[in-house]
Amino acid sequence: MRLRLPLSIRGPGLFATLPAIMYVAMLYLLAGWSGFFVMGIELLGGRLLAPYFGSSIYVWGAIITVFMLALSLGYLIGGRYSVHSPSLRRLALIVLAAALTVLPVLLAGDALLDALSARLPDPRFGSLLAALSLFFVPTLISGMVSPYAVRLLVAEREHAGERAGRLYFISTFGSAAGTLLTSFYFVLWFELNQILWGMLAVSVFIALLACRVRPRKLS
Amino acid sequence: MSRIALALLMLLFTAATPAAGTLIHSERSQYREVLVYEDAGTRCLCFTHGCAIGRQSCIELSHPDHMVFEYTRLMLGALFVVPDPHEILVIGLGGGTLPRALHELLPAAHIDVVEIDPAVVRVATQYFGFQSSPQMSVSTEDGRAYVRRLLREGTHKYDLIMLDAYEREYIPEHLLTREFLRQVQQLLRPGGVVAANTWSSSRLYPNESVTYHAVFGDFYNLKRGNRIILASSGALPSLDQIRHNSEAFADAFTPFGFAPALLLPLFSTQADWDPAARVLTDQYSPANLLNAGH
What we know:
The complex is a heterodimer of chains A (219) and B (294).
Chain A: H1 14-53, H2 57-81, H3 88-100, H4 103-119, H5 125-143, H6 145-153, H7 160-189, H8 192-212
Helix pairs in contact in A: 1-2, 1-3, 1-4, 1-5, 1-6, 1-7, 1-8, 2-5, 2-6, 3-5, 3-6, 3-8, 4-5, 6-7
Chain B: H1 2-16, E1 22-28, E2 33-39, E3 42-46, E4 55-60, H2 70-75, H3 78-81, E5 87-91, H4 97-105, E6 110-114, H5 118-127, E7 136-139, H6 143-153, E8 158-163, H7 178-186, E9 188-199, H8 205-216, E10 220-223, E11 226-232, H9 239-247, H10 287-291
Parallel strand pairs in B: 5-6, 5-8, 6-7, 8-9
Antiparallel strand pairs in B: 1-2, 2-3, 3-4, 9-11, 10-11
Helix pairs in contact in B: 6-7, 7-8
């Protein structure tokens, strides 16, 4: 079985270790961007739902519930999925899939919200169902990223906690950045759908970039 | 010049920081703290301790009809545009001053009130003399959700819709977009009027103006500290017509403490804003960020 593992920095010289650094940097970038992406979508989700269900406390409660639930399941599934032949390429595909599952929000979001709010106008269960159908899948897939990346980062048991800690730091820092930039600046400069298309494009770009990184292989 | 500025500043300051008085009731709602203060015979509803960022609504206990806030008087200017509304919708209850006044002026009219916060409804009823009745029904839900629901049901339209849901510190952004105003317009009968209470000094002024203009065309703009927008779903009546309509209320406003003639000079259709400002839409609605001065 061929293993693709990151190298700790003890190879002979910079040139040899560069692929390993690139590899680790790419893992962090994917995790950080994924955190950014989730919170950006969550904030925009509130604004997308407001015209249909209002912006009462129930609507935000429903959105946060769906995101937390999706993330929790995503962690579980991502961890499970990382057991068999994990690779950076597969992680990149997870990020790509999370982005592509936002497409229905862009292409059919308004039609769906219109139909849903007509059938289930209750601000609690209507917005819960709306958030479930629009954001559950992309958020769940995004949740898979962190545990999967931990699997790729950890080579030795003694550094497992350190590596995982650093990854959570970067991914949650990404979430903080996504929250702040989206709510303070992006909504001031762009339309909601422009922001969504932009985030989708960044996801695709980063995923393709990650696919091009070749880790140094161990035999 | 600087003396005038100073005097204005002091006036602003005294108006903005009233002595809050004695706290007689407080409750924590889903959205905020709802507080009732009483001072020298005036009772006020506030959402912040000591009314630090303003009072929502006040009544004089000896003259509960008397309108303490100028903006509520300006809002009654809507009746000069649509003099005999039968069906009225008020979005945002506060202390209930406007619905109470409308009910007194037009006892035959049917008034629907939408208020998002059930605690505000309770407090308005208990402390500010608001009463629901067959003529005055209250729904506790989001204003936009209510408007959409009624449009969907398609059975009820209004002659007058009053929007009193914007707070100085927080504007519900989904209630200030072109799409929402179009829905409000659809919920109006022919010649029906929307009256919105906002601010003259807000940085949002140009965006707000172009957004209303995009939906309703020209509208009457009554500017004091507050800004009242009066827009019609049909042709806007001329100033002569407005003056004529106001005569019907010559004495009717006396219990509220003012005469209709005070409002007439304020009616203006002058577009005193930058027409190139960006229209607010469901896709682009950073009302609070714009208001904060970015």
